[in-house]
UniProtKB/TrEMBL annotation:
InterPro entries for this protein: CheY-like_superfamily, LytR-like, LytTR_DNA-bd_dom, Sig_transdc_resp-reg_receiver
Ranges for domain HTH LytTR-type: 145-236
Pfam families: LytTR (PF04397), Response_reg (PF00072)
Domain spans labelled Response regulatory: 3-122
Native source organism of the sequence: Clostridium brassicae
Top-level division of the source organism's lineage: Bacteria
Protein name (Swiss-Prot/TrEMBL): Stage 0 sporulation protein A homolog
PROSITE patterns per record: HTH_LYTTR, RESPONSE_REGULATORY
Keyword check for Phosphoprotein: yes
């Protein structure tokens, strides 16, 4: 499922871009949902729910909060969302690199629909390699979960609680040990910060004192024995992105 947000304060262009995207997705038989927003402020009111989108198309030149500032706020919650800037000007390249934008699209391009198609082709190709899913037998039923959507896993009384970002943060449970699930997820960016917590490094925003702060604002304790190792892994990770 592709969830796409289009944010532009020009009503005509908002509609045009939405139509081109629908045409592309229908042609490729991709299931999708598209939501449109008339300003950066309106989009940012979603808070953490912004991460439910696969791709966000942002007009750079918007009033109040422009596309660059909006993208910076998005990156505070997620490094996984694909950000595409749409602009009448091409003088924001450096700022785009800082928020890891995948494309700049010029509104004045005569072949704008072709540019949209090429952009979507690139994103679809990246997703085929970047998205890793795993099937879990939860108490709520068998579910296939994107690993990048798992915030953290908590061990409680022989049960594991998976805190997962979907349309909102949802909790699924299964019987098992954190040691076993840590081994199963090895190599996928999860770090053990405590006897009770296995955390997705992608969702650690900062380390404050003896705790990690996650992208949804949750604070989790780091055990003293693991602190140095967790800090080292986090510093290495933010140096790579």
């Amino acid at each position: 499922m592709f969830r796409i947000a289009v944010c532009d304060d020009e009503k005509y262009f908002l509609s045009t871009l939405e139509n081109f995207l629908c045409k592309y997705l229908n042609k490729h038989e991709i299931q999708y949902e598209i939501d449109t927003f008339k300003s950066g402020m309106e989009f940012l009111e979603l808070g953490i729910d912004m991460v439910k989108y696969t791709v966000i198309f942002l007009d750079i030149n918007m009033d109040e909060i422009d596309g660059i500032m909006t993208a910076q706020k998005v990156r505070e919650f997620s490094k996984e969302v694909f950000i595409v800037f749409v602009t009448a000007y091409i003088n924001y390249t450096l700022e785009g690199y800082k928020v890891d934008a995948v494309r700049y699209l010029l509104k004045s391009n005569e072949n704008f629909e072709e540019v949209i198609n090429e952009c979507m082709d690139a994103i679809v190709e990246k997703m085929n390699y970047a998205i890793i899913k795993k099937v879990f037998k939860f108490s709520q039923g068998v579910k296939e979960i994107r690993l990048d959507r798992i915030l953290y896993i908590e061990s409680r009384l022989h049960k594991l609680q998976f805190h997962i970002m979907q349309d909102k943060v949802r909790i699924y449970t299964l019987y098992g040990t954190l040691n076993k699930i840590e081994n199963e997820l090895e190599g996928n960016g999860f770090v053990r910060i405590h006897q009770s917590f296995l955390v997705n490094i992608k969702h650690i925003m900062s380390i404050s004192g003896n705790s990690v702060i996650l992208s949804n604002g949750v604070k989790l304790s780091i055990s003293k024995s693991r602190y140095k190792g967790v800090k080292k892994i986090f510093i290495e990770y933010i140096g790579e992105i």
